[in-house]
Amino acid sequence: MTTTKARLGDLRIAPRKVRVVANLIRGKDAAEALDILQFTVKKAAEPLRKLLFSAVSNAVENHSMDADALFVKTIYVDQGTTLKRWRPRAMGRATKIQKFTSSVTLELGIR
Predict the structure, then answer these.
(1) Per residue in 30-61, pLDDT tens?
(2) Reduced to 3 states, what is the DSSP secondary structure of residue 44?
(3) Cα–Cα nearest to 76, from 102, 105, 56, 51
(4) Closest by Cα among 11, 65, 64 to 42
(5) Residues 6+ apart with CB under 8 A from 56
(6) pTM summary value
(7) For the residues of 55-89, what is the DSSP string, one character each?
(8) CA gap 15, 13 in Å, rounded
(9) Is residue 72 classed exposed, middle or buried when 0-12, 13-18 and 19+ CB atoms within 10 A define those classes?
(10) Is the four-CA dihedral 24, 28, 32, 34 of positive or negative sign?
């Protein structure tokens, strides 16, 4: 097996915001990607850093891969479930508020 996957579901950040951070680490070495996420000032950077760290740990422990040879092969962000809320407005009306969630899939490969 030359790849390993990790998945993060129902992250309470909109997918378009998470994709900005995911694009920073696509194709990078795992150690370099961890450094990039460590110093990225975005809310989505911390959950992605934890996901990447978990994927590297799983690759080393479960699949006996070399941590120095790992790189981010694919990372994609899909839309998760949408939380629907209501906000009161003028004259007794209400408008729908949609709170989007993200589902992140990360795949590591060996160089």
Answers:
(1) 999 999 999 999 999 999 999 999 999 999 99
(2) coil
(3) 105
(4) 11
(5) 30, 34, 67, 70, 108
(6) 0.91
(7) HHHHHHHHH---GGGEEEEEEEEEE---EEEEEE-
(8) 6
(9) buried
(10) positive
